[in-house]
Protein backbone atom coordinates (compact mmCIF):
# COMPACT_ATOMS: atom_id res chain seq x y z
CA UNK A 1 0.00 0.00 0.00
CA UNK A 2 1.32 3.43 -0.83
CA UNK A 3 2.12 5.88 1.92
CA UNK A 4 0.81 9.41 1.57
CA UNK A 5 2.31 12.03 3.87
CA UNK A 6 0.37 15.26 4.26
CA UNK A 7 2.49 18.22 5.28
CA UNK A 8 1.58 21.80 6.12
CA UNK A 9 3.49 24.55 7.92
CA UNK A 10 0.44 24.97 10.17
CA UNK A 11 -0.06 21.35 11.23
CA UNK A 12 1.91 18.30 12.29
CA UNK A 13 2.73 15.97 9.37
CA UNK A 14 0.40 13.02 8.97
CA UNK A 15 1.29 9.84 7.07
CA UNK A 16 -1.49 7.48 6.05
CA UNK A 17 -1.84 4.29 4.03
CA UNK A 18 -3.84 4.63 0.87
CA UNK A 19 -5.69 1.95 -1.01
CA UNK A 20 -4.06 2.03 -4.42
CA UNK A 21 -5.44 0.59 -7.58
CA UNK A 22 -9.05 1.40 -6.98
CA UNK A 23 -8.72 4.42 -9.30
CA UNK A 24 -11.40 6.21 -7.37
CA UNK A 25 -9.68 7.56 -4.29
CA UNK A 26 -8.51 11.13 -4.66
CA UNK A 27 -6.02 12.93 -2.43
CA UNK A 28 -8.90 15.06 -1.14
CA UNK A 29 -11.03 12.02 -0.32
CA UNK A 30 -8.09 10.49 1.57
CA UNK A 31 -7.47 13.77 3.42
CA UNK A 32 -11.10 13.95 4.49
CA UNK A 33 -11.10 10.33 5.58
CA UNK A 34 -8.10 10.96 7.85
CA UNK A 35 -9.26 14.40 8.98
CA UNK A 36 -6.42 16.30 7.33
CA UNK A 37 -7.55 19.97 7.15
CA UNK A 38 -6.87 20.39 3.44
CA UNK A 39 -8.70 23.41 1.99
CA UNK A 40 -11.36 22.66 -0.59
CA UNK A 41 -14.59 24.01 -1.92
CA UNK A 42 -16.15 22.80 -5.19
CA UNK A 43 -14.59 19.28 -5.13
CA UNK A 44 -14.96 19.31 -8.89
CA UNK A 45 -11.72 20.79 -10.25
CA UNK A 46 -13.03 24.31 -10.73
CA UNK A 47 -12.17 26.56 -7.77
CA UNK A 48 -8.47 25.72 -7.21
CA UNK A 49 -8.81 25.83 -3.39
CA UNK A 50 -7.42 22.32 -3.03
CA UNK A 51 -4.09 23.12 -4.74
CA UNK A 52 -1.29 20.86 -3.45
CA UNK A 53 2.34 20.21 -4.31
CA UNK A 54 3.09 16.52 -4.76
CA UNK A 55 6.58 15.05 -4.68
CA UNK A 56 8.05 11.59 -4.40
CA UNK A 57 9.49 10.44 -1.07
CA UNK A 58 11.76 7.82 -2.62
CA UNK A 59 14.34 7.90 -5.37
CA UNK A 60 12.17 6.19 -7.97
CA UNK A 61 10.50 9.42 -8.99
CA UNK A 62 6.83 10.03 -9.48
CA UNK A 63 4.51 8.09 -11.71
CA UNK A 64 2.96 10.18 -14.42
CA UNK A 65 -0.58 11.25 -13.86
CA UNK A 66 -3.37 12.32 -16.11
CA UNK A 67 -4.43 15.97 -15.85
CA UNK A 68 -7.98 16.69 -16.89
CA UNK A 69 -8.70 19.71 -19.12
CA UNK A 70 -10.38 21.37 -16.15
CA UNK A 71 -7.37 20.77 -13.88
CA UNK A 72 -4.93 22.03 -16.52
CA UNK A 73 -6.98 25.20 -16.94
CA UNK A 74 -7.10 25.93 -13.20
CA UNK A 75 -3.36 25.26 -12.75
CA UNK A 76 -2.56 27.67 -15.60
CA UNK A 77 -4.95 30.25 -14.14
CA UNK A 78 -3.20 29.94 -10.75
CA UNK A 79 0.19 30.41 -12.41
CA UNK A 80 1.43 26.94 -11.46
CA UNK A 81 1.74 25.62 -15.02
CA UNK A 82 2.71 27.34 -18.25
CA UNK A 83 1.78 26.31 -21.77
CA UNK A 84 5.33 24.93 -22.12
CA UNK A 85 4.90 22.87 -18.93
CA UNK A 86 1.67 21.41 -20.31
CA UNK A 87 3.35 20.49 -23.60
CA UNK A 88 6.31 18.90 -21.77
CA UNK A 89 4.00 16.92 -19.47
CA UNK A 90 2.07 15.60 -22.47
CA UNK A 91 5.07 14.83 -24.69
CA UNK A 92 7.37 13.35 -22.04
CA UNK A 93 4.58 11.74 -19.98
CA UNK A 94 5.86 13.58 -16.91
CA UNK A 95 3.94 14.18 -13.69
CA UNK A 96 3.05 17.71 -12.62
CA UNK A 97 4.20 18.61 -9.12
CA UNK A 98 1.19 20.92 -8.76
CA UNK A 99 -2.14 19.17 -8.58
CA UNK A 100 -5.68 19.67 -7.44
CA UNK A 101 -6.33 17.30 -4.54
CA UNK A 102 -9.91 16.72 -5.68
CA UNK A 103 -8.70 15.55 -9.10
CA UNK A 104 -5.56 13.53 -8.36
CA UNK A 105 -6.15 9.82 -7.95
CA UNK A 106 -3.88 8.03 -5.47
CA UNK A 107 -1.57 5.62 -7.26
CA UNK A 108 0.85 2.94 -6.10
CA UNK A 109 3.63 5.32 -5.03
CA UNK A 110 4.80 6.92 -1.80
CA UNK A 111 4.26 10.66 -1.99
CA UNK A 112 4.51 13.86 0.01
CA UNK A 113 1.51 16.14 -0.34
CA UNK A 114 2.17 19.74 0.73
CA UNK A 115 -0.92 21.80 1.35
FE1 LIG B 1 -12.30 23.09 -6.02
FE2 LIG B 1 -10.57 21.03 -5.85
S1 LIG B 1 -12.01 21.72 -4.37
S2 LIG B 1 -10.75 22.53 -7.41
UniProtKB/TrEMBL annotation:
One Pfam family per UniProt? Fer2
Lineage at the top is:
Bacteria, Pseudomonadati, Pseudomonadota, Gammaproteobacteria, Chromatiales
Protein name (database record): Ferredoxin
Q: Where is the 2Fe-2S ferredoxin-type domain?
A: 2-115
- The signal peptide, as residue positions, is none
What PROSITE patterns does the annotation carry?
Answer: 2FE2S_FER_1 (PS00197), 2FE2S_FER_2 (PS51085)
Name the domain of life. Bacteria
One GO molecular-function annotation for this sequence?
A: 2 iron, 2 sulfur cluster binding
Amino acid sequence: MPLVTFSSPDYKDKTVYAVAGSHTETILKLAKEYKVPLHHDCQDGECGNCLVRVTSVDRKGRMSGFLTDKERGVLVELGKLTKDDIDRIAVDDMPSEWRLACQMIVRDEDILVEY
